Amino acid sequence: MKELEDLLGKQNVKYNEPMSKHTTFKVGGNADIFITVASLEKLQKVLQILDYKNITVVGNGSNLLVKDSGIRGTVVKYIAKKFNIKDNEVVVDAGITNARLASVLLKQNFTGFEFAAGIPGTIGGALVMNAGAYGKEMKDIVQKTTYIDLEDKKIKTINLEEHEFSYRHSAFQNKKCIIVQTTLKFEKGNSLQIQNTMNEYAEKRRTSQPLEMPSAGSTFKRGDGFITAKLIDEAGLKGYSIGGAEVSTKHAGFIVNKGNATAKDIIELIDVVKKKVYEKFQKNIETEVKIIGD
Asked: Is 288 a catalytic residue?
């Protein structure tokens, strides 16, 4: 669309774009149109051009599985990454990565975000999923969030309670919207201690998770009263594979792409894991990864 190209630059408007380039699973069919938007002003103009219709929003693609059939309409990746620090609050754009924000906060001696430094996504994605690790979640630091409602075309701001945070859940999962900015609150800490904690968490991830292989992080949610990965392991599923998809031999809670997986392989493997765990333990396990596409 020439209007989009004129607004964003041709390099930021791609047609029949493989979503395998934009997800950490490295699988997925083509998006009809894939656009990258770097400011709220341009995002609003984009939405006017598209009339707010047939829009799929993605962040870093780190908790996403796109079907082999791809995505119809327009995929919007919002990459605005400005931040503003005032007292102990940080107002930050949704497109900044968790790793980048962790680096910024470290320099300011702010503690409270160490848990998210190694989560390979954006702040926007972390809000949608109420991302968490090591006993902390986004709900512990969020003050308010601003988003564009794609239904009524208005910019709205909600307070902490209105996020409806729970385990790997937020109100955004039930909204058709684009998160543009959030305000986070931190306490001052000791930079050496903050760095040491981040290093400790990074080492734990490196030794316990299959970071060397394409995945979407933890494929399954924590169970209610049980450890999902432990049940998958005890069901004898470590190393079980379908096509190029495999239950990680390093961490049973991860499904990985051995290099030639299709989304179909991964989805079928997810279904097999769910079925076998239920047959053996009568426990229903849920996926954490979001599956999208037509």
From this structure: yes
pLDDT digit string, tens, across residues 212-259: 999 999 999 999 999 999 999 999 999 999 999 999 999 999 999 999
* Distance of alpha carbon 221 from alpha carbon 215, whole angstroms: 15
> In whole angstroms, what separates CA 248 from the centre of its chain?
20
For residue 178, give both structure tokens.
Answer: 């684009």
The full set of domains in the chain, from first to last, is 2-78 (3.30.43.10), 83-208 (3.30.465.10), 228-292 (3.90.78.10)
Cβ–Cβ under 8 Å, residues 247 and 240: yes
Residue tagged active-site, from 20, 170, 215, 218: 218
In the annotation, is 162 catalytic?
A: no
Strands 290-292 and 64-66: parallel
pLDDT at 131: 95
Is there a catalytic annotation at residue 168? yes
Length, in residues, of the chain: 294
Give the whole-angstrom CA distance, residue 42 versus residue 44. 5
d(CA 132, CA 119): 8
Q: Residue 2 corresponds to which tokens in the numbers above?
A: 């020439």
**What are the tens digits of pLDDT across the range 1-53?**
899 999 999 999 999 999 999 999 999 999 999 999 999 999 999 999 999 99
CA distance 110 to 226: 34
- Return the structure tokens found at 84: 């503003």
Burial degree of 235 (CB within 10 A; 0-12, 13-18, 19+) = buried
C-alpha to C-alpha distance for 194 and 111, rounded to whole angstroms: 6
Residue range 138-181, pLDDT digits in tens: 999 999 999 999 999 999 999 999 999 999 999 999 999 999 99
- Catalytic one among 168, 170, 215, 246? 168
Which amino acid type is present at position 12? N
